[in-house]
TrEMBL record:
It comes from the Bacteria. Keywords: Isomerase, Metal-binding, Zinc. Gene3D superfamilies: Jelly Rolls. InterPro entries: Carb_Metab_Reg_Kinase/Isom, RmlC-like_jellyroll, RmlC_Cupin_sf. It comes from Halolactibacillus miurensis. This is Mannose-6-phosphate isomerase.
Length: 580
């Protein structure tokens, strides 16, 4: 199976890149000499390895003064007090922060630091300022921005070697570190990055220990602009989980050393990296930067007007082949999410079945007829306290699945994917808001039970969603909407309560796609290979393999998808999503 785990986008622009610290130091020293620089600022995203940057870069510049941003900030304890409401005591859920980094500056400390800097400048010395929010410290002559993607950040949280920003909590429960990241750290850091990165002279890819890559910011932004005009794939990542399976390991031939693979995130710019290939030199960037700097080109003005710089569609896989059921869960209704967590839109979902490993594989979707909330909640509470095993057969409707089924899961619907299947999850993006109701009495891979949130789940369970309603509204809602020579297009969802529209194309000859004035995301759910071609030669032909997720920016109005390679003339199927 030809599955590319490191897809990159070829950028036409010829650029100079500085690879490793020796080359970077040399370039910055040249800048210092030629431009008579007194203050260099190296600002970074949280969890970039600041110690490495200090030892291998800053010290090598032999500055007269080094300042870390923390020197102008209020104490950690004061920050904790200010964000206590955002962090909450819960292990998983917080409340979205609307803070800015500048809220945490201590004016007296700031003034004292500025005086120290002024003294060095007066004697024509060199000052290097670094850290998160470093550009807030003083005006600089040269600004470098060091960046990092979310997946690498999560790995670093888990490693025990890194603390959250201003937290001193290395080794803490990674769930709590992730919560601080999601609800606070990334919010303030993104706000700051949107403002600072475009003002910088250079950007630094710090994903690989000891081997950073530095390029000019103009080249980087021009590269992102190029990406915003063509189909592209993000770098997928794979993660193990208590219910994880082995289909991805076997089918894609990857990460076989892991106990299992539960998730593959492959169409989530907030989480995935984007790999820019400048004539053989790879530069890894957070996918979200595309939205921050070219959001309107990527989403289209209609969708950009609704969602701003957030990517509203998420594609990921859930693999339970040889694994177990997901937790029995529900996602919050929109008003609950807005009131309780301060998020804009909720996690509406759908399951497209990529593979069912046995005839009686099933999903849990809605209730059996006549189930009362009070009785259900009592049973769930008894199960949570360990008094008894939850009788899922009594309460929850189970529906047998087969390959290429599509199940719609508007927020408020109780659901779970059963064991022995592979789901392509097509959902709206916020990915933290799963309220587990029952986790089958098991413990997680770390030996601890996963947190169940009955008090959040209860108000969100829509008891009207029983077997009859589910069959009528959520199961295989296929309607043929168009067809031509060798192709057919079906509308498959999502439910009218959800803002994503999904279309399935089955074809053995070329199909012209219209983008519906929205970003499009698709996955090749059947067939070995297809190509995506431009109708006006504005981008190079893009080759897509089985199970690959592709993002088509809205700037590409129409495009052609054709079976290619060994799939030429054979049946292929794509599942595409866009915003209604
Ligand atoms: O709670 P569980 O069992 O890990 O469930 C998996 C969940 O993971 C996600 O894919 C991402 O959070 C959810 O959408 C899904 O419902």
């Amino acid at each position: 199976m030809n599955y590319n785990c490191r897809p990159s986008v070829n950028i036409k622009n010829q650029i100079t890149a500085y690879i490793n610290y020796t080359a970077i130091v040399q370039q910055l020293k040249q800048e210092i000499t030629h431009k008579r620089i007194n203050v260099i600022t190296i600002e970074n995203y949280p969890i970039v390895d600041e110690q490495e940057i200090k030892n291998s870069l800053i010290n090598k510049l032999q500055p007269d003064l080094i300042i870390h941003t923390d020197e102008i900030l209020i104490e950690q304890m004061q920050i904790d007090e200010m964000i206590a409401h955002n962090l909450t005591d819960d292990r998983i859920f917080g409340v979205m922060s609307h803070h800015a980094l500048s809220d945490f500056i201590n004016q007296d400390k700031h003034q004292a630091v500025q005086e120290k800097i002024n003294a060095v400048i007066a004697s024509n010395g060199l000052v290097v300022v670094y850290g998160v929010g470093a550009s807030l410290v003083t005006i600089s002559d040269l600004l470098v921005y060091a960046d990092l993607s979310r997946w690498e950040i999560q790995q670093r949280y888990r490693s025990g070697a890194f603390s959250n920003w201003r937290a001193n909590n290395a080794g803490e429960d990674p769930n709590r570190m992730l919560k601080r990241g999601y609800f606070f750290e990334w919010r303030v850091a993104d706000k700051q990055k949107k403002y600072v990165l475009p003002k910088s002279a250079y950007v630094l890819d710090t994903h690989h220990k000891g081997v950073p890559v530095m390029i000019r910011t103009d080249d980087y932004l021009a590269g992102l602009k190029e990406v915003s005009k063509q189909p592209f794939s993000l770098v997928p990542f794979f993660d193990s989980g208590v219910w994880g399976g082995h289909w991805m390991q076997d089918t894609f031939n990857l990460e076989r050393d892991k106990v299992n693979l539960a998730w593959s995130f492959n169409g989530v710019p907030e989480e995935n990296s984007l790999l820019l290939n400048f004539n053989g030199i790879e530069f890894e960037s957070p996918g979200s930067n595309l939205l921050f700097f070219y959001g309107e080109d990527i989403l289209g003005s209609r969708v950009f007007g609704k969602f701003g710089e957030e990517f509203p569609i998420r594609f990921n896989f859930l693999d339970t082949v040889g694994g177990q059921n997901l937790s029995l869960q529900v996602h919050p209704k929109l008003s609950y999410l807005q009131d309780t967590f301060g998020s804009h839109y909720t996690q509406d979902e759908s399951y497209y079945i990529l593979h069912a490993d046995r005839d009686d594989a099933h999903v849990y979707l809605g209730f059996n007829k006549g189930v009362e909330k009070q009785e259900l909640m009592s049973a769930l509470r008894r199960a949570e306290s360990g008094d008894e095993v939850f009788d899922d057969k009594k309460y929850i409707y189970q529906h047998k699945i087969k390959k290429h089924d599509h199940y719609l899961i508007p927020a408020g619907t109780i659901h779970s994917s059963g064991a022995d299947c592979v789901v392509l999850e097509i959902s709206s993006t916020p990915n933290r808001f799963t309220f587990k109701l029952w986790d089958w009495g098991r413990v997680d891979l770390d030996g601890k039970p996963r947190t169940v949130h009955l008090y959040h789940g209860e108000p969100n369970l829509d008891m009207r969603r029983d077997e009859d309603w589910v069959k009528k509204e959520l199961v295989n809602q296929f309607i043929v909407v168009d067809e031509g020579e060798g192709w057919i297009e079906e509308k498959t969802g999502l439910h009218e309560m959800e803002f994503i529209e999904t279309r399935r194309h089955t074809f053995n000859s070329p199909v012209i796609h219209d983008n519906h004035n929205s970003v499009n995301v698709f996955n090749l759910v059947e067939g070995e290979e297809v190509t995506v071609e431009s109708l006006d030669q504005s981008f190079e032909t893009f080759v897509v393999h089985y199970a690959q997720t592709v993002i088509i920016p809205e700037s590409v109005k129409k495009y052609k998808i054709s079976p290619s390679g060994r799939a030429k003339g054979k049946k292929c199927i794509t599942m595409k999503a866009y915003i209604r």
